[in-house]
Amino acid sequence: MQLSDILTTSLLRTTPAFIEALKAMEIETVEQLVLHLPRAHEDLSQIQTIGEVPLDTKVTVRGTVGRLSLVRTRSRKSIVKTLFTDLHGDSAEVVWFNQPHVKRMLTEGDEVVLTGKIQEEGFKLKMSSPQFERAGVRPLLHTGRLVPIYPQHDSIHTKWLREKMSLVRSVIKDLPETLPQEIVDDEHLLTRAQTVEALHFPRQPEDVARARERQAFEEMYRIQIEALRQRQEWQRLRQERLRTPMDPELIKAFFRTLKFTPTKSQKIAIYEILRDMENDVAMSRMLEGDVGSGKTLVATAVMANVLANGGQCALMVPTEVLARQHAESIARMLVAFYNNLLARRRAGERVLDFRLPSVSLLVGSLTAADAFAVRRSVAAGQTDIVIGTHALIQDAVEFADLRLVIVDEQHRFGVEQRVRLQEKGTPHVLTMTATPIPRTLALTAYGHHDLSVLVEKPGNRKVIRTKVVSPRDRQTVERFIDQQIDEGRQVFVICPLIVASDHEVMADVKSVEHEEQRLRESFSRRRIASLHGRMKPAEKEKIMKAFKERQVDLLVSTAVIEVGIDVPNASIMLIEGAERFGLAQLHQFRGRVGRGDHQSHCFLFTTTVEQSRSPRLKAMEEHDSGFVLAEIDLKLRGFGELFGTRQSGFSLSGLQEFLQPEFIVRARRAAERTLSEKPFAEEEMAARL
Questions:
Q1: Lowest CB count within 10 Å: 275, 289, 336, 388, which one?
Q2: Beta-strand relationship, 111-121 and 402-408
Q3: What domains appear along the chain, each with residue ranges and CATH number?
Q4: What gap in Å lies between CA 526 and CA 599, rounded to an integer?
């Protein structure tokens, strides 16, 4: 038998129907069959005695079969009975319902291994329809060992697969290795053949553990190889124009114009980014920071260094509201810096040479004439910094000397959108995210980036007081909110839906439409507005402007306000149906308040009283760190749920215990060794993987 042999009825001793079912599972060769691996294992290896086993618990016992009888009931159902005696002489009645074939398969005196539950019925012990295998005829497959449990499909059940795996077991040793041999040796891994053998036919739990380690390592190694290949491809092109010298004195002078002292992690991130940009290959770095950690300041300082060296910068953000906010805040910081230098120069000091920057906004709502004027200014090099949405990646947008691209909230953009912006001059690229990503995920999904992390928050921001609220406490909280509005504060109200269907209304799922109407009744003295994704950009901009200018007391919105909206006077975040959101998103919502001098509050309303006791939501009360909450979310919701396999491009289903930073670093280093020895052996690597 060869690995390449096509599966046939004679080879597997089965019927054409089963061969067709295997084809539906994309299993047509012997190799594909042996690579259909178990999803789990059940430990049935401990042989016990009837007199000692606990009742109503699955156990495995070994002994002999007594006389078998077949009884037919009036409804024509069959019952096979026998008295089973274990090796210690203890007995139990064994009954199989509607399995008349058992009487043909077993005879009195056969030694068998049974797996099932022993129950007490009257004054006797009984086992109902246990699994059984004759002992001593062949190695046990279904009982008396670590039993593999396979993914099933229609008629292809796990017991059938165990039997067929035993028929093709001999070819497992011929499976080709898919990892470089030096990696297998250096990391003390099982070979591929040993791994498959251990999963189908484990002798002890340690065999399964080592096989799963090899599986996880290989998958992680593939991911890291691909990430490093992407980086090598990105950095293969060397351009002298990309060299942007770091000017520490300029950064120090910029810091002196701020109203606060940058944090240590902000200074480290700025240094790491500027150090990368001194090279003649394009930087690829991610800046990860919790809500309020000061990513915009880092980006502005880096852009100031680029402007001082004559380059252009582009900042792409997901929404027009955020683009306008960034344009305003970045221009304000850079103009203040310029004015400070100008005043010192006029006072006779020797200061740095830094010209007044030109900052332009390019968004979809601009008139055709205004958009054309911005594009012409950018192409002529008259615009130093252009900030915009998807409008930046249009073919008509050209740059004179694009030195740095910053993508804010990078997870909101597809890979293709990010690449199109990068291709406008192959510049240095900095991606930023305020969504805390566990280090494990960052090392895995973003392995093609270097990573900078902001772990502190600038200034002395007050902790946002967070409370999970059950429906019965709504009136108490709403009275408190009314008092806060009397004191001049403003309120965000977040709903899961824009409009609820009849079914969702019955289930009390909150919508923007319904809540706006209800709040106008509950807060009749207050000014209320709504915001959601179906509105036109100009309409959303108008409402957000009114809210920022304190013309609105309560803003009812969907998740459209999750990212970047900055309203320092808003001190209350009220989230309806909090159980419908992940911890990371709840933390993002919470970060929209706590930006001013007033104590801020976040209320997580649940749909039912029971949901208000959720340990997951209670974690929001206990933890203010987005990174801690992201780790909790990872453990509670799983790898794919938290991150999304479609976005991350990989799957480690069933191997989550290996998603530890130390394990991933091992795979990363192994991938680096492989590619450093053969930097561009892509065809060979593709063949191996």
A1: 275
A2: unpaired
A3: 46-144 (2.40.50.140), 240-454 (3.40.50.300), 465-639 (3.40.50.300)
A4: 21
Phi (first) and psi of residue 21, to 5 degrees: -65, -40
Structure confidence by residue, pLDDT tens digits, 146-161: 889 998 887 898 889 9
Cα(531)–Cα(547) distance, rounded to whole angstroms?
11
Torsion angles phi and psi, residue 225, rounded to 5: -60, -45
The model's pLDDT over 31-46, given as tens digits with 9 standing for 90+, comes to 999 999 998 898 888 8
Report the distance separating Cα 296 and Cα 306, nearest Å: 15
Residues near 173 by Cβ (< 8 Å), separated by ≥ 6? Answer: 193, 197
Residue 368: which pLDDT band, with cuts at 50, 70 and 90? very high
The length of the chain is 689
SS3 403: strand
Tokens (6 digits) for 422: 């990068």
- Least-confidence region, from 216-225, 341-350, 411-420, 515-524: 411-420
Compute the distance between CA of residue 217 and CA of residue 196 in angstroms, rounded to an integer. 14
| pLDDT at residue 370 greater than cutoff 60 | yes
Q: What per-residue confidence (pLDDT) applies to 635? A: 67
Single out the residue of 252, 308, 318 nearest to residue 277, CA to CA: 308
With a CB cutoff of 8 Å and minimum separation 6, the contacts of 365 are 320, 537, 538, 541
Each residue's pLDDT tens digit, 78-114: 999 999 999 888 899 999 999 999 998 899 999 999 9
Phi, psi angles (nearest 5°) of residue 648: -80, -25
Q: Strands across the sheet with 570-575, in order?
A: 465-469, 601-605, 570-575, 490-494, 554-557, 528-531
Average model confidence (pLDDT) across the chain: 85
User: Model pTM?
Assistant: 0.64
- The candidate with the shortest Cα–Cα distance to 672, out of 504, 441, 450, 408, is 450
Q: Is the separation of the CB atoms in 492 and 593 below 8 Å?
A: yes
307 burial type by CB count under 10 A (0-12 exposed, 13-18 middle, 19+ buried): buried
Spatial distance between the Cα atoms of 237 and 254, rounded to a whole number of angstroms: 32
Residue 20 has which token pair? 């067709």
CA nearest neighbour of 456 among 622, 600, 259, 625: 625
Tokens of 137: 């005829």
Q: Tokens representing 32? A: 């594909």
**Helical (H) or strand (E) element with 58:** strand 58-65
- Pairing relation of β-strands 312-316 and 385-388? parallel
Mean pLDDT of 355-383: 93
Half-sphere exposure of 336 (CA within 13 A, CB side): 15
